[in-house]
Amino acid sequence: MPQRRAITGRSQEPRQRFAEELRTLRAAGGMSLRQLGERLGWDWSLFGKMEKGETLGSPEVAQALDQHYGTPGLLLALWELAAGDHTQFRERYRRYMTLEAEAVSLWHFAVSVLPGLLQTPGYAREVLAAGGLEGRELEQQVEARMGRRELLEGKDAPPFRTILSEAVLRTPLRDATEWRQQLEYVVQVAERPKVTMQVLPLNVGLHGLVNATVMFLRLADSRTVAYTENGYRGDLIEENAPVERLQRAYDAMRDLAFSPAESRKFVLAMLEETPCEP
Asked: What is the pTM of this model?
């Protein structure tokens, strides 16, 4: 369904409307992004991302723009509407999926659940059902998740590293047969030349990503973005400073993980402990 537009022809989706107003006001003033950044004292790339709808910036930035453009309170009000709009999380996830498909390399840490790129249909179905999906919507989401696995297939697949917390492998499915198939699939994918799988043992104790599942994407323009998530929401992070902090935490945690060879043996040992189908 096409997006409904108001009489003005501008978007009624809060996040897009905020971005549109920023573009319109700057164009009317005849100022470049770089000039705007120099005038207000912020990195000009921040305003570019705000005008693309990639980030909202902070309320302080919105207030500074209001003062600069002579629109007292207007941009701050639009910022508040955009920040409080829950549909933004779905929009941000769609943007993440676009970036994932374009990534030239990926690296990931799973704190409690296997990444979608490694899930079998049975595993995906149980995880999504636990999140409240059912019926046709559940089956559609399982199918969509299985489609994502194609990213790691073929000679043009990007390099992918995943570090799995031992807790992920200690949390089986209800159906032992489905769980065995899932473990077998993890071993199978880990044998691909562009895939590296490591296991982080529980006895390493606390670390910098103990509460976060995170995926890093290296893009064709050499930027790295991160996507963090829990069972209820996800956040796409594109600003350099927080991405770098997450990468440092990831590197420190990777030093604590088993080697790829040791990790493969660990998963195989888990397979031996899993009952076979009668």
From this structure: 0.66
